[in-house]
């Protein structure tokens, strides 16, 4: 699964730690999601969508896309 | 966004709680194991020391359960993988060693402490590898 978390975070000048605090996960988890090593659960993906005020499909997409 | 959130505070608190109860349990185990031969010769005191050890063990288990509950989904995944690997390796190698010992192939006397050592070392190694994998 691909995601635009790194881009969206950079647009807001947030550090990984800032995003981790907002999503209530560890900085390592944010890093693992951004680098594609870990796919978040649906609740966490929706939490990110709410945080960035974007539809979930604008942040996460299938690798085949 | 620099101050610690309630989630991070909860994590710190559960880490401290787990460390405290684990430390107390280890101390009580050491006391129950060593003291009958050095400090007292009463079976009643031995029973009391083992009961205290069990009570602290239950507190440690509860603290560990809360600790896992406070972790995020990736941390839980790493823990689950480490625990399954540690349990699997310990059961397989532990039973294999016992079988070899029963059949007289090896003369070394295995006991529960060796199994605990294997379980602990495997868990720590698997945890470190898991953390490195998702870094």
From TrEMBL, chain A:
The HTH cro/C1-type domain, residue ranges: 5-59
Superkingdom as given in the UniProt entry: Bacteria
Pfam families (alphabetical): HTH_3
Keywords per UniProt: DNA-binding
Gene3D superfamilies reported for this sequence: lambda repressor-like DNA-binding domains
SUPFAM superfamilies: lambda repressor-like DNA-binding domains
UniProt xrefs under InterPro entries: Cro/C1-type_HTH, Lambda_DNA-bd_dom_sf
Molecular function terms, GO-annotated: DNA binding
Keyword DNA-binding on entry: yes
PANTHER family: DNA-BIDING PHAGE PROTEIN (PTHR46558:SF4), TRACRIPTIONAL REGULATORY PROTEIN-RELATED-RELATED (PTHR46558)
UniProt protein name: Transcriptional regulator
Automatic annotation (TrEMBL), chain B:
Protein name: Uncharacterized protein
Source organism of the structure: Idiomarina tyrosinivorans
Keywords: Membrane, Transmembrane, Transmembrane helix
Bilayer-spanning residue ranges: 42-62, 82-100, 112-131
């Amino acid at each position: 699964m691909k995601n635009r978390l790194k881009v969206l975070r950079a647009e807001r000048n947030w550090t990984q730690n800032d995003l981790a605090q907002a999503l209530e996960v560890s900085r390592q988890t944010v890093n693992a999601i951004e680098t594609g090593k870990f796919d978040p659960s649906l609740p966490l993906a929706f939490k990110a969508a709410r945080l960035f005020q974007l539809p979930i499909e604008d942040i996460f997409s299938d690798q085949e896309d | 966004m620099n101050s610690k959130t309630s989630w991070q505070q909860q994590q710190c608190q559960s880490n401290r709680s787990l460390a405290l109860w684990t430390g107390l349990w280890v101390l009580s185990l050491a006391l129950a194991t060593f003291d009958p031969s050095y400090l007292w010769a009463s079976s009643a005191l031995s029973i009391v020391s083992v009961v205290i050890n069990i009570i602290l063990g239950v507190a440690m288990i509860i603290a560990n359960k809360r600790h896992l509950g406070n972790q995020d989904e990736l941390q839980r995944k790493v823990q689950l993988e480490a625990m399954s690997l540690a349990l699997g390796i310990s059961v397989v190698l532990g039973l294999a060693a016992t079988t070899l010992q029963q059949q007289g192939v090896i003369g070394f006397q295995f006991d529960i402490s060796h199994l605990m050592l294997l379980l602990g070392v495997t868990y720590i190694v698997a945890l470190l590898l898991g953390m490195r994998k998702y870094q």
